[in-house]
# Entry
Amino acid sequence: MRKPGLTLARILIADDSHASRRFAVQQALGGGHQVVEAVSGYEALDCFDPARFDVVLLDVMMPGLDGFETCRRMRARPDGTSVPIIFMTALEEQRAMDGAVAAGGDDVLVKPFRGAELNMRVRALLRTYETLRNERAATELAVRQREEVLQLTAQKDALTEFLVHDLKSPLASVAFTIHELLERVADEPYRVPLRSCLSATDTASRMVMNLLDLSVGRLDVHAVRCEVASLVDHMRDHFAVRLEVRGVSLVTRAEIESVWADRELLRRVAENLIDNALRYAPGDSEVLVSLEAHPGGALLTVTDRGPGVPLAHRERIFDRFVQLDPLASSRASRGLGLAFCRFAMDSHHGRIWVDDAPGGGARFQALFPGVGGAPC
# Structure
């Protein structure tokens, strides 16, 4: 193919008229171009090779196989669209241009034309085709890169799902064993570390489940009437050890009796929000959990007295693996809990957001579009 930036071309000229063909050849040679002659459309097809020629000049009115049909057959060949084709004609210009466009040509030269006109058209088409080749190459590269990224993402997701599934069973076994030990051990000094281990196991299990759901990318919501009292009791029991270790009090306030939601997802959203609050709440402070009626549904609010969330980061913290706290890695966090919460709320067609708590700290609020045991 022609070297980039080259303005002199290898031109195939096809015209059944000897005089007309020799004129076109002389004009092309006068511009410094290389020329191969063909006396018919059939001969031009035999000579045509996109790797050999940079431009093709075809006379329109050739007998047997006219220029328009010759152009169509050239375009139908592999790489046949990579070479500019110019028609030469004595026809009225608009009529010839319409036929050229329909046949797949690029330009029309009306006989007799000057060498300068031919050179100008050739240079313009060479630049245009070079730009198109570069754009096509860039597009093909982008498509290949996108396909590679999609393939790697699919492999990562498959590996993540495989690992998470394999982690669920041993974690469940550990939790079951600790529960059994707690049933059999009566001495409180031994029960404290067991409860601590159980709490850590529950945290790891929650992280695993968050990772699994986020990697799968789909949550099935089965909304039912969820009793608020049982949810509150579960939260107190579930976080009892961590609350004691951190010296933090869990204060609950329920102004409604039930929430219309998926029971498992509601529990996990509450657990993740309380877990997040406990990681930032200072010692001897309170984490407030409330459930109340709200226009459009039921509002779950979790408030802590920690440093709060800067305004610029209040959307980012719901993205996967986002950690604003440089010490988060030492707090068993991987930036999945809040991402799961948004995922679960989107699946409920609800909302979740964070703002400043009155008196300082962060206030996370999740709006479930159902209250009183019935959908809104």
Q: What stands out?
A: DSSP finds ten helices and 14 strands in the chain. Confidence is low (pLDDT under 50) at residues 1-5, 327-334. The CA atoms of residues 41 and 64 lie 8 Å apart. Residues 115-184 form the longest helix (70 residues).
